Amino acid sequence: MFSILRSLWITFLHMFHKRVTIEYPEEKAPLPPRWRGRIVLTRDPDDMERCVGCYLCAAACPVDCISLQATEDENGRRYPEFFRINFSRCIFCGYCEDACPTYAIQLIPDFEMGEYNRQNLVYEKEDLLIAGQGKYHGYNYYREAGVDVGVKGKGEGINEDKPVDVRKLMP
Amino acid sequence: MNETLKLSLIAIAILLVLVTIAAGLIWVERRMLAAWQDRYGPNRVGTFGILQVAADMIKIFFKEDWIPPFADKSVFILAPAIVMTTILLSFSIIPFAPGILVADLNIGLLFFFAMSSLGAYSVVLGGWASNNKYSLLGAVRGSAQMISYEIFMGLSLMGVVIMAGSFNLTDIVLAQKNVWFFIPQFLGFVIFFIAGIAETHRLPFDIPEAESELIAGYHTEYSGMKFGMFFIGEYLGITLISALITTLFFGGWLGFGFLPPVVWFLIKMFAFILFFVLLRASLPRPRYDQLMSLGWKILLPLSFLNLLVTGALVLYFQ
């Protein structure tokens, strides 16, 4: 009996509490920088595409929403000929970002992707590619390691040893 | 002729105001529930979301009005009409202010009891005609609940009738000139309030509907405006019980001057409507057998006791 009256009173006092609602379109919830939202393709510090077309993201994707085709430029540098993400399938799990060896594919805190036409949710490479470097600044895969594609010579990369002459005995 | 016209105009005005209030209560309830749950509630359509009611009305009128092929068609259509009719008829005996009432019946209170007993049919027939197990369970629960609570709902008001010496609601209000009846009849007031919640099957006694157990109970199969009539009927029921509490225990239109009597009536009535919403916001639903044992084992003996003591005291002081 007393507890009923007490719960009535406590509920009544909630009228003067702060509301927990965030009135969305006018007021937005703060999203952490590593929030998994829309997928972008980033560029390296030299403003070149980071993606090397290794297909790891497409292989990691549990819903198979990524499709791409790798190709090479005249220097032998790999890049995707096309890169297509079907966001109507994407579940924003971030596995593609985990799988990417060059930090090219990244998920950013943006979720406002509503469309009236389902086909508009299929993003092509020009929609995905951004001008900046995303979350990982200063990283350039071809400067760290890898073959000579006109960015650096063989063995000249950061933390990279000179190539070993396999026919010599001396270390 | 002129007098007849005036009376019918008053009746039509009361009808329109009541239906508007009942529809507006949807918005009031959603906003107040939200306030008591630290939310905002509907606040987008119009100022403070007040046009939400209009939006809901437009929506519900355009919904498909589906009659299930397995239902008993004529009874299925009749059931929602009964709840609206009986509750609206009950309002005809309520004196909102001197002169603002539809029928000054000398058996006013008995008329209300008769109408609220008929209201039970809407639940029973609605659940039966739906031909659905959840609806039937809801109907069985609803009929048992409404019939058993009807008994001491009547008995709890007999104290008021003894003190006022009349079944006429205008006389009952006038008998409260000196002291409102909720002071001498506090027990009767509490019992009537509990019975009123059960009678309108509002939370926490919404056992016939019980979303978590019976989907929507007796109106599971209803859609469109037929569902809307059950819905509006529920809000009209709240308004009716609040208006009756105001009339019987809180001095009806009697106030403290400075405002017209009808405003006093509406203020008191809305206070009780808000209390109904507060009850919904704070109390959990009891189990079905708990509800029945509370009614038969506690409230019924208490209302007999109240009747006995009131009668004895009135006889003693005569």
Description:
The complex is a heterodimer of chains A (171) and B (318). Chain A is α+β, with helices and mostly antiparallel strands and 171 residues long. Chain A is 18% helix and 14% strand. Chain A is built from five helices and five strands, in the order αβαββαββαα. Chain A has helices at 2-13, 56-60, 95-99, 125-128, 141-144, and strands at residues 39-41, 66-72, 78-86, 105-107, 122-123. In chain A, strands 2-3-5 form a three-stranded antiparallel beta sheet. Chain A has a two-stranded antiparallel ribbon with strand order 1-4. The longest helix of chain A is centred in the first third of the chain and has 12 residues, at 2-13. Chain B has helices at residues 2-36, 52-62, 73-90, 108-130, 133-164, 169-174, 186-199, 211-214, 224-249, 261-282, 288-317. The mean pLDDT of chain B is 85. The A-B interface holds A 4, 7-8, 10-12, 14-15, 17-21, 23 and B 35-40, 278-279, 281-283.
Short summary:
With 171 residues, chain A is α+β, with helices and mostly antiparallel strands. Chain A has five helices and five strands, in the order H-E-H-E-E-H-E-E-H-H.
* Strand runs of chain A, count: 5
The overall pLDDT of chain B, averaged over residues, is 85
Structural class, judged by helices and strands of chain A? alpha+beta
Q: How helical, in percent, are the residues of chain B?
A: 55-70%
Helix coverage percent of residues of chain A?
A: 10-25%
Largest sheet of chain B: none
CA-based gyration radius of chain A: 24 Å
* Spatial extent as radius of gyration of chain B: 20 Å
Low-pLDDT sequence parts of chain B: none
Main β-sheet, spatial strand arrangement of chain A:
2-3-5
What's the N-to-C terminus distance of chain B? 44 Å
Strand content of chain B: under 5%
> What's the oligomerization state?
heterodimer
Number of strands of chain B: 0
What can be said about the biggest beta sheet of chain A?
3 strands, antiparallel
Q: Structural class of the helices, strands and pairings of chain B?
A: mainly alpha
Q: Calculate the terminal CA-CA distance of chain A, rounded to whole Å.
A: 89 Å
Shape call of chain B: globular
Q: Secondary-structure element order of chain A, as H and E?
A: HEHEEHEEHH
